[in-house]
Automatic annotation (TrEMBL):
This is Polymerase/histidinol phosphatase N-terminal domain-containing protein. One of its GO terms (molecular function) is 5'-3' RNA exonuclease activity. Residues 42-51 have a biased composition (Low complexity). Residues 32-60 are annotated as: Disordered. InterPro entries: PHP_dom, PHP_domain, Pol/His_phosphatase_N, Pol/histidinol_Pase-like. It comes from the Bacteria. CDD domains: PHP_HisPPase_AMP. PANTHER family: EXONUCLEASE, POLYMERASE_HISTIDINOL PHOSPHATASE N-TERMINAL DOMAIN-CONTAINING PROTEIN. Residues 70-135 form the Polymerase/histidinol phosphatase N-terminal domain. It holds the Pfam family PHP.
């Protein structure tokens, strides 16, 4: 028997399709993933595997049965991933995901391709984007935006300014690196797809190909880190400003990997308070870069302020260890995201 997902009588219309997920993968031609594991976040912020789900499981008449595998943070070569949007969708299907979001940095260029491919394979698609932000005191914050209007002019203008600044920064960093390593701008551009903006990941890929470092992670932990003499800052939105722009565009802002000390300084309590006051909707708790102690703090923050809790892979393709579906978001959290979106952009269902 098919699993049942119930949302209660007051679910808004745009979430009604999510409620239809009692049989989405069957009528889309996809068998229910027998033996697949639900890895949605638990009450402690962990992403440990839950009960195993099979087609034989009886339906439940109330509450939410967490049987869907939902990954809301992935990247394609429209930004700094290594695979095309279509290939990310295919990889999501192979990984047994039921729902995935494409959240390329500062661009929505991959939405159509990823969505078309995902739906054709029986996988639901959540349109998203990751916005690069910096606080007034220089702390890097990444803001995931879900279901925002892609043509909202104020958000587009801010993103375009950030992209121009990142391009200029990349030129300067390559010039600095070229003083010590045999790297050129052409080496970097060989790793950039036509619509993508050059960023540090592309510089990292060039360094890997040149044999300077073994992989992207090594490049980011050393010469491309914020502590490196080659590092150059670029213009980025303040996270409060980004949240307001996302909300104005009808989207739902969720702070990505918000307490990941290996990435550098993390946002302060004052930063979080300001983001919450501005309209922050949620926090990405289950992420490989958030240590256990950070997850506990984030879960308390979410409970205290009624924030949406998500878990994701931050998949980039080759060069990074992140695996699709290694962390997952609950159906309840995806429902809350859908409930808060006002742009008219919706999850694409098979």
């Amino acid at each position: 028997m098919d699993a049942v997902i119930s949302f209660g009588a007051r679910a808004p219309a745009r979430v009604a399709m999510l409620a239809e997920c009692s049989r989405p993968w069957c009528h889309a031609g996809q068998p229910w993933p027998v033996g697949s594991e639900d890895r949605a976040i638990g009450s402690d912020g962990s992403a440990s595997s839950g009960r195993r789900v099979s087609r034989a499981d009886p339906p439940r008449s109330a509450g939410i049965v967490e049987v869907m595998r939902i990954d809301l943070h992935t990247h394609s070569n429209a930004s700094d991933g290594t695979e095309s949007p279509a290939d990310v969708a295919r990889a999501a299907h192979r990984a047994g995901l039921n729902v995935f979001a494409l959240t390329d940095h500062d661009t929505t260029a991959g939405w159509q391709e990823a969505g078309d491919t995902a739906v054709s394979l029986g996988v639901a698609f959540v349109p998203g984007m990751e916005i690069t932000c910096t606080t007034a005191d220089g702390i890097s914050v990444h803001m995931l935006s879900y279901l925002h209007g892609p043509d909202h002019a104020p958000l587009l203008d801010a993103i375009e300014e950030s992209r121009r600044s990142r391009l200029s920064r990349a030129h300067t960093m390559v010039d600095l690196l070229a003083q010590d390593y045999p790297i050129s701008w052409d080496d970097v551009m060989a790793h950039v797809s036509p619509e993508a903006t050059v960023g540090r990941p592309h510089i990292a890929d060039a360094l890997v190909e040149l044999g300077v470092v073994p992989n992207r992670s090594a490049a980011f932990s050393d010469m491309l880190s914020g502590r490196s003499k080659y590092y150059v800052r670029h213009m980025a939105l303040d996270p409060v400003q980004a949240i307001k722009l996302v909300r104005a565009a009808g989207g739902v802002p969720v702070c990505a990997h918000p307490m990941a000390p290996l990435r550098g300084r993390v946002a302060t309590p004052a930063d979080f308070n300001a983001m919450i006051d501005a309209g922050l909707a949620g926090v990405e708790v289950a992420h490989r870069d958030n240590p256990d102690e950070s997850r506990a703090v984030l879960m308390k923050l979410a409970a205290d302020h009624d924030l949406i809790v998500t878990g994701s892979s931050d998949y980039h393709g080759a060069g990074k260890p992140n695996r699709l579906g290694e962390n997952s978001t609950s159906v309840r959290s995806l429902t809350r995201i859908c409930e808060q979106a006002t742009s008219g952009v919706e999850v694409r269902w098979p």
